[in-house]
Amino acid sequence: MNKRRQARLFAFKELLDYPDNDTATRLIVEQSAKVVGKTIYRRFDNSVRPEKFPDISLVLIVKNEEKDLPRCLESFKDIVKEIVVVDTGSTDRTVEIAKSYGARVEFYEWTNDFAEARNVSLSYASCEWVLRTDADEWIEEPEKAKLLHCVNSGVADIYLCPTVSKLRNGVQTVENVRLIRNHLGVIYHYPIHETVALSAAKLGLVQCLTNVDFLHSGYEFLEAGSSEKKTERNISVCTQYLEKHPEDFYVRLVRGLLLLNTTRKGDAISDLERGVKDIPDDASPVKYMGLAYIALCQQYVFEKRDIDLINILLDAQVDFNVYSCMMQFIGQIYLFNRADWKRANKIFDWTLKKYSTKLTFSDVLFPDKYNEVECSKLMAETCVLLKENEKARKYYLQAKKIQKSQSEKSEHQSYDKHYEDVDSFSAEQLRILAKTPKENLKYIETYSNILRAASKSELTAQDYLDLANCQIQLNNLKFAQKLIDESRLINSEIPFAYNLESLIALKEKENDKALEKAVQAYIKEPGNSSYQNNVEQISNLLRLSPVQGIKKVGLNWLSTGQTKEGLFALMLYLKFVPEDLEVNAVVAKYLN
C-alpha cells in the first residue's frame, strides 16, 4: 500500500475512533474527490414530461440484433434527435432495421475491444447529450420523463441509471452510465466491462446516480451453454489485452472474476491477487475492484488466511468506505469471521451515519440482506455483545422504524409484524422464542432472538453458549470460540462449553482435540446421553471404542501434567473396564 493510500487508511481509522476529527474528515473528502471525482444522487419526477429539452444522440454498437433492435429504437425514437448505430459485422436485417428508423449507420471492424467500439460510436454523436444503450435494452414511457428531466437539470455531466435485467430466477439491478454530456472529452477505457470512471475523474466531471430505470432482456432466454461460451470469449478478450498490457490491474481483475465461474479457480485467485497488488494510487473504486475484494475476502475466510484477510479488508475500507453495502459486508467479516465485535461495531456505526442505497453490489451483496434495516440490527447486536444495552435498544428501534417507513413507501414491501411482537416480549419470553426455531435449524433467527433477550436483561453464561452453538452451525468457528470464552468468564464449570469445543474441533478436522473436549464434557456430566454419544462418535472416527477413547485421553492428560482431569477420566474408564491392570496401576500410583 503506497503512501497516499496509507494516508487515506489512517484517516479512515481515525474517524472510526473519533468521528468528529475535522482534519481526518477533510483528508478523506479531498482524497476521495481526487480519486473518485464528484458523485451526487438525484431522484427525478415522471409526472410531467418536459416540453423542451436539449438535443440527444442515441448511440449503439450492434451485431445481428434484428430480434431486439426494433423494441429498443421504438422506445427511444421520440426523445432523441439523432440515432447512431455502429455495426460490427451483422449478417441479418440489423442494418436495414436501423435505417428504417432513420439511423445513421456506420461500420466498424470488431477488434475484441468494447471500449474502442464505444468510443467510435461516441465520435459520431453530434448532439449536446449522448444516450448510450444496447439493442436488448429499452425504456418504458414513465421513465422517459425522468430521463428528460436529467438533461434539463444541468446538475451533472454524466448520469448513471439502474438497469433491471430479467433472469430465469428473478431480476438483477446494476448501475450503468447512460447519459454523457458531449464534447467534453469523455472516453471509455478497457476492452471488457468498459468504463468512463477514469475519464470522469481525470476531467473533474460530476456524475449523478438517478432513479431512471432501463430494462434489459439479454439474460432471460439464454440458450444452454451460451453463458459459458460468453465467459470464455470474455476471458480470451482479457488475455489478448494483457499480453500487450500486463500491468493493467483492471483487466486482470476482470479476468480473475470471470475465471471464478470456471474450473480454473487457482488461476482466478492468482489474477485477483496480482490485480489488487497492482492497483495504482489514483485508481477509481470501480465495480470490478470491489467485486475482487469481495471474492478475495470470501476465499481468505475459506482458506483461513488471516493476515491476507486483514490486508484485503483494509484495502476495501480505503477504496469503498462510502459504499454502505460494502461496509456492512466488511463489518460482518470482522464480526463473524474475525470475532472482532468492537471493530465491527465501529464499522456499522460509520455505515449507518451516512447510509446510501445508491452505490451497491446488488448482484453479489443482495439487497434483502445488505440494507439499512439489517445493518441497524447488526449494530444493535454488536452493542449487546459489548454490553451497551441501552444503545442496542435504540438501534433495534431504529431498525423497526426504517422497516416500517420503507413498507409505507413501497407497495412491494410489507411491514414485518415480528418487530412489534418482540418489543412486547420480556427477556425470558424471547429466550423461549429463541429455543423454538433452533429445533428447526433456524440458527440465524435463534442467534438474533437471544441477543434481543439480552438487550432487555444481560447476557448469561448459557446465552453465550447458545449463541456459540448457533455460530458453530453457521461455520463461524472463531466467533463461536470467543463466545465460549466469554461464557467461562461468568461460569467456567458448564460441561456444554466443552461439548461445543469438541464440535469446533471436529469442523476443523482436529479429531484428537475433539475427543479430548468431548471427554471433558462427559466426565463433568456422565449422565448426559448427548455427551456420551459425542464421545462414541468421535472415538469411532479415530477407530477406537468409546472406552478406549476415554482411556487415551486420560493417559494423555496425565502425561501433560493435567493430573486431576487424567485421574477423573481413567477412573471413569475403570467403571467400564475394571480388569485393566495397567490403568489400575497408573491410578494407584497417583493416588498413593
Tell me what the structure shows.
This protein has 592 residues and is α/β, with parallel strands linked by helices. Among the domains are: 3-36, no CATH class; 56-216, Alpha-Beta Complex (Spore Coat Polysaccharide Biosynthesis Protein SpsA, Chain A), CATH 3.90.550; 499-592, Serine Threonine Protein Phosphatase 5, Tetratricopeptide repeat, CATH 1.25.40. Helix content is 59%, strand content 9%. It has 27 helices and 10 strands. It has helices at 3-17, 22-36, 69-76, 94-100, 114-124, 141-153, 197-203, 226-244, 249-259, 265-277, 287-303, 306-320, 324-337, 341-353, 372-385, 389-409, 418-424, 427-438, 443-455, 461-473, 477-490, 495-507, 511-524, 529-541, 546-559, 563-576, 581-591; strands at residues 38-41, 56-62, 82-87, 104-107, 129-132, 137-138, 158-167, 170-181, 206-209, 214-216. Strands 1, 2, 3, 4, 5, 6, 7, 8, 9 and 10 form a 10-stranded mixed sheet that branches. The protein is elongated and about 105 Å long. The mean pLDDT is 89.
Can you tell me the CATH superfamily of the domain at 56-216? Spore Coat Polysaccharide Biosynthesis Protein SpsA, Chain A
- The outline comes out as elongated
Number of helices: 27
Q: How much beta, percentage-wise?
A: 5-15%
The oligomerization state is single chain
Cα end-to-end separation: 64 Å
Tell me how many strands there are.
Answer: 10
CATH fold category name of the domain at 56-216: Spore Coat Polysaccharide Biosynthesis Protein SpsA, Chain A
**CATH C-level label of the domain at 56-216:** Alpha Beta
Overall CATH architecture of the domain at 56-216? Alpha-Beta Complex
**Structural class of the secondary structure composition?**
alpha/beta
* Averaged pLDDT: 89
Unreliable segments (pLDDT under 50, ≥5 consecutive)?
Answer: none
Query: In percent, how helical is the residue content?
Result: 55-70%
User: What Rg do the Cα atoms give?
Assistant: 30 Å
Give the biggest sheet. 10 strands, mixed
